[in-house]
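Inputs:
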Amino acid sequence: MSSIDKDTARKVAHLARIRVAEDHLPKLAEQLSGIVSFMEQLNEVDVEGIEPMTSVTPMRLKRRVDVVTDGDQQEAVLKNAPDAREGFFAVPKVVE
Amino acid sequence: MTKELNTLTLAEARDGLRAKAFTSVELTQACLSAIDGAGALNAFVHHTPEIAHAQAAAADARIAAGDAPAMCGLPVGIKDLFCTKGVASQAASRILEGFKPEYESTVTAQMFDAGAVMLGKLNMDEFAMGSSNETSCYGNAVNPWKIDDRQLTPGGSSGGSAAAVAADLCLAATGTDTGGSIRQPAAFTGIVGIKPTYGRCSRWGVVAFASSLDQPGPMTKTVRDAAIMLQAMSGHDPKDSTSADLAVPDFEAMLTGDIRGKVIGIPKEYRMDGMPAEIEALWQSGIEMLKAAGAVIRDISLPHTKYALPAYYVIAPAEASSNLARYDGVRYGHRAKLGKGDGIVDMYEKTRAEGFGSEVQRRVMVGTYVLSAGFYDAYYNRARRVRALIKRDFDEVFAAGVDAILTPATPSSAFELGAMANADPVEMYLNDVFTVTVNLAGLPGVAVPTGLDAQGLPLGLQLIGRPWEEGDLLNTAYALEQAAGFVAKPAKWW
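Outputs:
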């Protein structure tokens, strides 16, 4: 199928929100291509009529009543934030 | 003086505590001293002696009052992947530097309720992604087994857990297993490790890698200890929607050692090309031991085995890329220093580039790629369909009357740290070749040490069981353990 070139590697890194220096892209592209070509063995398998596995054990997820069971923990929630102010998470300006 | 207290098994220590032969405070101090003297192994990366002393004193009080639950007073190590309240829990990643959870994982909470004593947090591969403990932000954990001057890997990802148990720094440790991360390091260090059925132990509060594959489990010195500790770790948890609402049997009581008439399957597809003769011989000797114990040996076929590794290396990175999206520098852990004019996307990209190591970055990007538009069906959905076929192979074999499956645990004994530094990433992935099938199918699997290779390094065999039948599986493992009589210990050099 497809091998990963430098432009694809740059695009994937951006989609993954990981900054990769321009001069590291060729090496990254090579490694990703190696992994992807390893995956391509899967093309040998006849999967006609087989549904993708979505649940590891055949059990229905539990339901519970739709009520609040927890909350009022603002301080604990913010405790580990790199930057928290006035009871909120603080981030760089998002909207001009 | 008989045995040093830190060298006891869980069962021996439990019985000694109940008989008042020693106290948990003494036992805990023996472990803390052993840890202090084992810096060279780099197994414990966050030390919690204050917690250990307090829990040991509380355990002694419980025992004196006649209330001694399963793990009461027994000192253990906890893999850094488990969130422990108020104690650093950073999945061996820079991106979680400084993170101290405000909550306790369900598994550790259950163990503490059962009286266990926490000695500290254990080294591992970053986000459990690795097979040699070399991707850790804390540096390598080192195998206590050694044959010459070289330092060997304890395996991964639960490498610190394996090294700590094998070196008698703790009586037992928690591990987690996504593709073999309990069983491979157990085999590399001559200890026992079981990955339970998916859903047996709660994943709540365990830092997520690949949610449909991850399972916590015990790493111990004996099969009996694995039964004792698995009991304490197991059970339904409403906070994990995939946790099974099933009764937990008394695993230890099921260890009779009687496996007469049990059908043990030997899958021909696990006889890999180029498999070392020693691994083949180990496997053959395991077959003979189980046969001698009265089991019926049956050749079986699991035809899609070959495709387990490529399927795993699509599914696990896909789930990881989604799970690790949460590390964005906003809510916890590391945030990159920003330059003038940097916006929020710069913050995400710089934070994740600084915080994630290279293997984690690679897997997140592979996952992003296989989930991206145009490739989702070709890679991700195809891998999930192959996964269904791998599971069906096992279902059919169990339906035909097989009780457990015997395979090698690893393709080799422990290798030298650094030996794979320049290898293709895929070469490292081959370590998981015998173990990933079990995660893909959600089955229980246990690694049992059964011998030494020609160099004198431990080797293990794996037994794979039917879903939810860990008790029966552990009993077969117990029979294998008794027949193998593996008692070798690493000579102390650290």
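Remarks. Chain B touches chain A through 74 residues (CB under 8 Å). The first helix of chain B runs from residue 10 to 18.
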